[in-house]
Amino acid sequence: MNKSYTRVLLTMMLAAIVVLAGCGAKQEPKEAVRDAAAKATEMTSFALTSKVVINNFSMSQSDELPEMEMVLAMLKDAELSVDGVFQNDPMQSEFTIGIHLKGDMEFAYNIPVVMTADKMYIKVPNIPMLGIPETLVNKYIEIDMKKLAEEEGVEWSPATMDLTKSQQFSNEVTDAVLSEYDQDTYFKSIEKEEFSVPEDVDAKQLVQFQVTNDNAKEAITILLNKVMPKVIDIMSKAEYKEMLQITDEQIAEMKEELNSTDESQIAADLEELKNHLTINTFTMNTAINKEGIPAYQEGNVDVIINDPDTSETVNLDMTITQHYKDINKTQKFEIGIPAGDDVVTMEQFQELLSEAYSY
């Protein structure tokens, strides 16, 4: 798949996870979602805890491939988390990426990351199996984003690190997505008994977006035929092209590829997909506090795909949660901006690795 398309799809997935609802009296679910998407762009700072848990990832014939069976065993109950604080002005964020794989080769690592308007700092974890030199362990690798762009022959722009502009982009993409989906088919308000939220979330309204076996074909058709053209138009705006580091030629290529798509073939493929896709669960729930802020989101996906050519059955069951706290408050940065002996440049990092592995 084209890298630009992948970026768009990932952006829309992230935007969809942040399904929101507005403030004041309870609104119609879809209206609440669209209003709150705009509200989200007003956040100037926040603490965030986000987690992806793979409850199950299995393949019916994995026992015929021992390596694959081992990987699947590690991924079962695997967790990926992001926990940190963010602020817009001045732009600064620090967060810890947590990776926890289970099974016979269980391991867990936390990787702190710090970002400013033009630099990124990544702490080198102590992973014995990688043989990282002790002189590098627990140091922060300083990545100069402007210098990196120049080395890659790309003109660097501060917009690529602009959290406010990124929020605005997500808002426009979210609105483009939501505007095309029918409220009665995909959205509904739910009660507290249907959605467990953290105790510190004073929820005023709970909204659910849901795709089922009955509307999956329609949902994908809408995404391809109606949403994607809108998203490409949003990406083509000057301020977003700069942020996404994409060119007019890439935009033109995406439009050409989209316009050349055989709609009748897509319709036939989607009709065929109905016979091989089972959606047990595909929901995105959001709890909105009294200020109209999306304080907590939870996405649940449980699907089964049967491949008619190989008779392979794949089951993916995962949960995604995001919890926003201390919104628009002064954030406390525990790490701060690394400096002095705690920092190595990318060049120093590469040189020390080269020396360690040159035996």
Automatic annotation (TrEMBL):
Superkingdom assignment: Bacteria
Coiled-coil spans in chain: 237-264
Record key words, sorted: Coiled coil, Signal
Signal peptide extent: 1-21
Protein name according to UniProt: Lipoprotein
